Structure formats: structure tokens, C-alpha cells
Automatic annotation (TrEMBL), chain A:
It comes from the Eukaryota. GO terms for molecular function: DNA binding; zinc ion binding. InterPro entries: Znf_BED, Znf_C2H2_sf, Znf_C2H2_type. This is C2H2 finger domain protein.
Automatic annotation (TrEMBL), chain B:
Coiled coil: none annotated. Keywords: Repeat, WD repeat. InterPro entries: WD40/YVTN_repeat-like_dom_sf (IPR015943), WD40_repeat_dom_sf (IPR036322), WD40_rpt (IPR001680). It comes from the Eukaryota. WD repeats lie at residues 265-290. This is Nuclear pore complex subunit.
Length: 450, 357
């Protein structure tokens, strides 16, 4: 669909980790950290790589008895040891801002030059996706309706042509179709039973909570009642909602299988005609990357909206990935709407599928960041912990760091000495902290003699 | 093994606080101070001159446990430091004791400088007393310390005092002698207090309480040990190059069930000839180290209780090891245990360093 993206966007460039000491930027944090270890925190004496400048300083003073004064290979104004840097952590805010400023201006310059040379519009506006990709996005509702109508007409024609070739295993044929519908037509069901359900509910309720009646119609509808498509026109407005759920979960979704198997008997005769339509639907219905889109509640409005909360980069991705879904969505929706709502057989499965999809999508988006953060965090933690462990494992046989063993022994009663010839005055002068034991003992001795 | 190591007969009845060989080159006399309030003088040679388990020559009773002892100018002169706050001189021939000075707390250590005829004692009252032995009439100079002293050692020219709070002072003996001589003349009875700036103030290179210091026989530096199984070797020379040479290492540790049991390093002694040194730890182990090559030369078999003191004979042929039950955590009392003195006859190269790596 869209053209290949030409270069990184400003956000990407700004998001790149960079080295505080030499202002070099890197593809990811790990590389930055290994760069810092190799270039700035490496001991010139023994080649040991430390994690921070402070660590190197301690290493130098302890191991080599040298004083580290400046960070190696650093820019002249960045060689201070005072700033504790690890990866991107510890970089002073003002320096981050200065860096961002610099990167941004550089980027803009480069961009301007490139535009001057190529004559291309800047990315983010329409450069990468190009105008054609942008257009469908801005299609008005009326346009959409028009197109839907056209499409339906086409469909009808095709059906009239009547290639009812695949009357074979329904389950097999259905799985993909369902996928297609699930992806595109989740919104419409309410349309078929408008009185029963308000729009947001199915989505808000998410798969698990959704009542069995909500989804089944859309799913079964398209394959089963293709003939009702005209009725779907009323729902055209709902058609646009782009896919909220990725197609993959449906194809892989195990829980979905039994219901499918169960459905065929319900509509044995009706199923053959719809099969013909599945191929076209499939083509359009499988958007390559549905995940990036905003969550379900926004769906009804989507077709008309330019998705304001989406930034340019996301927009591009959507353009590239999802230019088609809106249109195909109409197909699905249209069919779904046309569908008579009885078959409840799918409900459970669809719920499962949707929730599964949602979870997977969540997992997919959630895991990468966590893993990266943990890996980034680990080296520091690990090295911190090691020495600690050693310490905790060591047990000092004599751990009183204030009082020497001899002093303790001296306090034992059997070693106590009474300075007899000195008299009470001296006793009073006794530094009590030092010979407590002796004092105590002297008391007892006095008692004894008395 | 057994042939060149023997146990000295009639050891003290309680824990040993110090053990010193006679400074006379071929003497085999040992003086030992003990918590049983006695100072013991042994000679390892029997009547025939054969070195063996030796015999107890004399026993000098004190009023309180004796914490340190050293020989004076000759074998007939012994100085002691005790819990009775006194610094004493014992004349062996006449068995007479003279109190040189009295501190205000127990006296932890006493050293004698042959080159400057000084007896210096360190007490838990945070003072040093400096006595001129060639002029017994002079009052000792009292030098205040910032913390309680734990150990003292001297070379021909320097005195190293290790104190609590990881403080360490190095004094110039000549200056001390001079000051003590000059301060003479103050009214008798009053304390002859002398504020003297140490030649160097240092912080211990070890993080834990200093247990022992011992100076190198070549006057170049010293080794110190801590309660946390570690020994540091440092040099006097304040130049950056010399200071860069200082180092510390772990020792006297045992690993049991993944737990590192860390023993205090109670005692250090330099070999007078080779310049290597011995360390004795709470684990009952004595190890010989080459401080220059930073290598361990050998480690002797574990002894039945904590090593309290080690010393080399003046000619470097013998190593005496005193063991007595240590005062360790969880033990409120010192257990009745083995108090023994081992003497090891060292082979020609037994204590010699292997040379630099």
C-alpha cells in the first residue's frame, strides 16, 4: 500500500538513546551502555569495564591507587566525575533539553534540505503514506455510504453470478470468514438489534462480559444471510469502524472451534451461498496491523475522524497498514447487519476470541517494554547485588568495631583490677567508658570487705 | 613437621596477651605476658644448648593481667604494660619491678626503642607515655591521642600507633625523644603533657577495627590487620609512588555452608632477615606472606585455638606462636581452653619470599 518510509521521524530521532559523555546516539539502550563501558568507564590499567564513572573512580583508587580525574573520551565539558551516568540515567535535565533542541534543529535542517532536493512533502503530513492513503481517511459519511452501496451492488451481482462452488466443510471455510468479520464487523451487531443494545456496550463490556446475543449475529450473519445485505444499508454508518482486533487470534483461537463445528447443522442450506463471498471479504478483511488503532469505544466515530489523538508517526503506520480496513469493514458490517440474529452458537466463542485477541494485543504491546526495561535495569541491579551478597554471607567472628577484645576481657570480673592504693578520688576520675567492669567489681569488693 | 615444631613447657595458665623474642641475635629467650597476671620468661635451650621445649626461667607476678611485654636494651630488662594502669620495668637479674609511670586506664601496649633509648606505652586513657630509659629521673612525656590505642610498633626511626576509629599516627622517634628530654623540668607530680604533632596522620586502609600493626624491619613501612580478616601493607614514604604501592588482602577466612566466616587477624610479625611477615588469626592459622611480591609463602596447619601472638627470633630462625582461646562474639566469657606456645624451627628458606612474580 503505502510507500516505504523514507527516514526516521523526529520522534524517533529524539527517542534514540545517546551518550552523555560524547553525544553519540545509539539504536538502543544496551548498545549505549556497552559503549559507555567500553569508551568511558574502562579502566586504562587493567581494562576492566565498570558501570559508572564513580565505579571506575573507586576501582582506580582501590585497585591501582590512582585518582580518576576525568572521564575518558568525553567532550571537554562533559568529563566531570560528579554526574553519575548509567545509560540515559542521571543525565541532567538541562543537558537533555539542550540535546533535544540540537537534535531537533538538526533534524529540521536535514528535513528541509531533503525537501528542497526531492520536493517531497515532509513526513508526518503526507509524505510517507502519500496523499492517496490519506484520502480515504477523510471520506465523509455520505461518501462512505455511497461506496458501500456501490460495493453491495457489486456483491449482489457477484452473487447473482452464483458461484456456489464450495459447499464443503463449513467449519473450514468459516474460520477465515469469521476472522474477517470479527476483525471488521464487531461494531455492527447492535445495528441488527438496535433496540436491544446500545453501542458502546459490546465493546466496553469486552468479550467476557458481552451477552451471548451481541456478537453472534455479526459473526454468523455474513456467511449465513448474505442475501440480506440490502437491509444492511441502514448500518452503513457503522461500517467504517476499523478493526479493533487482530485477525490472528481468530485463526488460532482454539476456544472458537467447537462453536463453529456446532453451527453448520443449524444452517445447512443457507451456508453454501455465502461461501462464495468469503474470498473477497477475506482479502479486505485482514488488515495487516490492526493493533495500533485506538480502543473500541471510539469506533463509531472513527470513519469520519482524523483521529486527533494519534500522532503523525502512528498515523503513518495506520495509513500504511490500514488504509483498506474502513472500506472492507463496510462489507463486513453490511453483511453483519443483514444477518438475522438468531444464531447464538457463536456467542461464547466470539467472546473468547475477542477477549483473547484483546489480551494478546495487550500482551504484545505490554511485554516488549517490560522486557526492555528489565534488561536495561538488570545489569545495574545485578552488579549492585553481588557485593551485597558477599557481605551478607560473610560472618565476622568478632564484629564489635568499637571495643577491642582485650577491652572486653578486661571488663570480665575475674580480670578486674582494683587500684587499691589510689583511693576513692581516683575511682571517681575513672573514665567510666573505659573500665566499667572494674568499677562494678570494685563495688562488690568493697561490699565483701565490709 | 613434628620434628621442627615443639611446644614450650609450662605455659601460662590463662590467655596469652603478648609474646616477644629476645633482641639478642642468637638468644632463644622468650618473654610472654598473660591474663593470669604473670610474665613468663622462657629459654628454649636446655642446659646443653639444644633447642627444644625449653624451660621456664622466671615468672614475674603482677597485680593485674599483663597486656603487653617487651625486652629492653638487654635480655635482663623487661618492660610490661598491664591492666593495673602501670608501666613497669623488670630487672631480671634481681627480679625487681619498678613502676615507670601510671596511666589512667589499662595500658594496652609497650615498646622499647633501642636506637633512642625510649620506652613508649599506650593506654586506653588515650595517651602515650614516653620514658627516657637512660635518664630514669625524668618524668615521662604524656602525649594525648585522639582515640584509644590498640596496637603499637616501631622501627629504628618511627613509631606507629593504631587506634580506634581507624586512626593511625606515625611519630618520629627522634622528635619524641627530643621533646621528652626538653619537657623535663616541670614540677614533679604533675603530668608532663606534651602536645606533639605526629609525623603523619593516617586513616587505616582497612574498614574495620585495627587489631595489630607491625613495622617492616627495613624501616620502609608497616602492615596492619583488622578484625575483619584483612591485612594492609603500607609505606611510610608519603610520595605518591610509594603510597600507590599500598595494598590490602583478605586472609584468615573459612567458607562454611556458603557463609564466609571471617576471623580477626590478631597478630603480625615481620621476619627480621627476609622482610616477610607472619599473620596469626582467630582461626588458629599462621600464614607467612611476602609483602613485596604480594604472595603467600605458606600457611601452617590450623592450631587448636586462636592465635594470640607470633614473633620471630632475632636471627630469624624461630617462629614462636602463642595460642589461647579468643574473645569472640557470643562468648561472654573466655572459655577455658588450650593455652600453648609453639616454637617452629624455620628452614633456611622457609620464610623467604619467592621473589617477584
Amino acid at each position: 500500500m503505502g510507500k516505504k518510509r523514507r527516514g526516521p521521524t523526529l520522534e524517533e530521532v529524539l527517542g534514540r538513546p545517546w551518550c552523555y559523555y560524547c553525544e553519540r546516539d545509539f539504536d538502543d539502550l544496551k548498545i549505549l551502555i556497552s559503549h559507555q563501558k567500553a569508551k568511558h568507564f574502562k579502566c586504562e590499567r587493567c581494562g576492566r569495564r565498570l558501570n559508572t564513572a564513580g565505579g571506575l573512580s573507586v576501582h582506580m583508587s582501590q585497585v591501582h591507587k590512582e585518582q580518576l580525574t576525568a572521564v575518558d573520551n568525553a567532550l571537554p565539558n562533559r568529563s566531570s566525575l560528579d554526574v553519575e551516568i548509567f545509560g540515559m540515567e542521571g543525565v541532567p535535565e538541562d543537558i537533555i533539553q539542550a540535546h533535544n533542541q540540537r537534535v531537533a534543529t538538526q533534524f529540521q535542517q536535514a528535513e528541509a534540505e531533503r525537501q528542497a532536493v526531492t520536493g517531497n512533502p515532509p513526513p508526518g503530513t503526507s509524505a510517507t503514506g502519500g496523499q492517496p492513503a490519506k484520502k480515504p481517511k477523510l471520506e465523509s459519511v455520505s461518501d462512505l455510504k455511497k461506496r458501500l452501496a456501490e460495493h453491495k451492488a457489486k456483491m449482489a451481482e457477484a452473487r447473482a453470478g452464483g458461484s456456489s462452488g464450495e459447499a464443503t466443510p463449513v467449519g473450514a471455510g468459516q474460520t477465515p470468514t469469521i476472522g474477517g468479520y470479527a476483525a471488521t464487523s464487531t461494531a455492527p451487531p447492535p445495528a441488527t438489534t438496535p433496540s436491544q443494545f446500545s453501542y458502546p456496550q459490546p465493546y466496553g463490556a469486552a468479550a467476557a462480559a458481552a451477552s451471548p446475543f451481541q456478537q453472534p449475529p455479526q459473526q454468523t450473519a455474513s456467511p449465513v444471510y448474505p442475501t440480506f445485505s440490502p437491509g444492511g444499508q441502514a448500518n452503513a454508518q457503522y461500517a467504517a469502524p476499523p478493526t479493533t482486533f487482530s485477525p490472528q487470534p481468530f485463526s488460532t483461537g482454539v476456544p472458537g472451534q467447537p462453536p463453529y463445528g456446532a453451527t453448520p447443522p443449524t444452517y445447512p442450506t443457507q451456508q453454501s451461498p455465502p461461501q462464495t463471498h468469503t474470498p473477497p471479504q477475506l482479502g479486505g478483511a485482514f488488515p495487516p496491523r490492526p493493533v495500533g488503532l485506538p480502543a473500541a469505544p471510539g469506533l463509531p466515530q472513527r470513519p469520519a475522524v482524523g483521529a486527533p489523538q494519534v500522532n503523525a508517526y502512528q498515523m503513518q503506520q495506520m495509513h500504511m497498514g490500514h488504509t483498506v480496513p474502513p472500506t472492507t469493514g463496510m462489507n463486513g458490517a453490511d453483511k453483519a447487519s443483514g444477518a438475522a440474529a438468531e444464531s447464538t452458537g457463536f456467542s461464547g466463542s466470539v467472546d473468547d476470541l475477542i477477549s483473547g485477541a484483546a489480551k494478546q494485543a495487550e500482551a504484545a504491546t505490554a511485554t516488549p517494554p517490560t522486557t526492555t526495561t528489565t534488561t536495561a535495569g538488570k545489569p545495574a541491579e545485578g552488579e549492585d547485588q553481588k557485593p551485597k551478597k558477599d557481605k551478607s554471607k560473610a560472618r565476622l567472628v568478632y564484629s564489635d568495631n568499637e571495643t577491642s577484645p582485650e577491652e572486653k576481657m578486661a571488663r570480665l570480673s575475674r580480670y578486674a583490677y582494683v587500684p587499691d592504693q589510689r583511693g576513692e578520688t581516683v575511682l571517681e576520675e575513672l573514665p567510666s567508658a573505659v573500665v566499667v567492669g572494674a568499677i562494678r567489681e570494685s563495688d562488690t569488693v568493697v561490699d565483701a570487705t565490709d | 613437621m613434628a620434628s621442627n615444631q615443639f611446644v614450650v613447657a609450662s605455659p601460662p595458665t590463662d590467655a596469652i596477651s603478648a609474646l616477644k623474642f629476645s633482641p639478642s641475635l642468637d638468644s632463644t629467650r622468650i618473654v610472654v605476658s598473660s591474663w593470669d597476671k604473670n610474665v613468663y620468661l622462657y629459654d628454649l635451650r636446655d642446659e646443653n644448648g639444644a633447642v627444644g621445649e625449653g624451660k621456664l626461667l622466671q615468672k614475674f607476678e603482677h597485680r593485674a593481667p599483663v597486656l603487653d611485654v617487651c625486652f629492653g636494651a638487654t635480655e635482663d630488662e623487661i618492660y610490661t604494660a598491664g591492666l593495673d594502669w602501670d608501666v613497669r620495668k623488670i630487672d631480671v637479674a634481681s627480679s625487681t619491678q619498678t613502676v615507670l609511670s601510671t596511666h589512667e586506664a589499662g595500658v594496652r601496649s609497650v615498646v622499647y626503642s633501642k636506637d633512642h633509648n625510649l620506652v613508649i606505652s599506650a593506654s586506653w586513657d588515650c595517651t602515650l607515655h614516653v620514658h627516657l630509659t637512660n635518664d630514669p629521673a625524668t618524668l615521662p612525656a604524656v602525649i594525648p591521642l585522639p582515640s584509644k590505642p590498640f596496637s603499637m610498633s616501631l622501627t629504628a626511626t618511627k613509631l606507629v600507633v593504631a587506634m580506634a576509629s581507624r586512626a593511625l599516627h606515625i611519630y618520629d622517634l627522634k622528635a619524641l625523644a627530643l621533646l621528652t628530654a626538653q619537657s623535663e623540668g616541670t614540677a614533679p607530680g604533675s603530668l608532663n603533657k606534651v602536645e606533639v604533632e605526629p609525623w603523619q596522620r593516617r586513616e587505616s586502609s582497612l574498614k574495620f577495627m585495627t587489631r595489630c600493626v607491625a613495622c617492616m624491619p627495613d624501616d620502609a613501612g608497616y602492615a596492619s590487620s583488622s578484625i575483619e580478616g584483612r591485612v594492609a601493607v603500607e609505606w611510610f614514604d608519603p610520595s605518591a609512588e610509594s603510597q600507590a604501592r599500598k595494598y590490602a588482602f583478605k586472609c584468615h577466612r573459612q567458607t562454611a555452608d556458603d557463609v564466609d566466616i571471617v576471623y580477626p587477624v590478631n597478630t603480625l610479625a615481620f621476619h627480621p632477615v627476609h622482610g616477610t611477615f607472619a599473620s596469626g588469626g582467630g582461626d588458629g592459622v599462621v600464614a607467612l606472606w611476602d609483602g613485596m611480591a604480594k604472595r603467600r609463602i605458606r600457611q601452617y596447619q590450623k592450631l587448636p585455638s586462636s592465635v594470640a601472638a607470633v614473633d620471630f627470633s632475632a636471627n630469624g630462625k624461630y617462629l614462636a606462636i602463642a595460642i589461647s582461646p579468643g574473645f569472640e562474639d557470643g562468648k561472654e566469657d573466655v572459655a577455658e581452653g588450650t593455652v600453648k606456645i609453639f616454637v617452629r624451627e624455620l628452614g633456611e628458606t622457609e620464610a623467604k619470599g619467592k621473589g617477584a612474580k
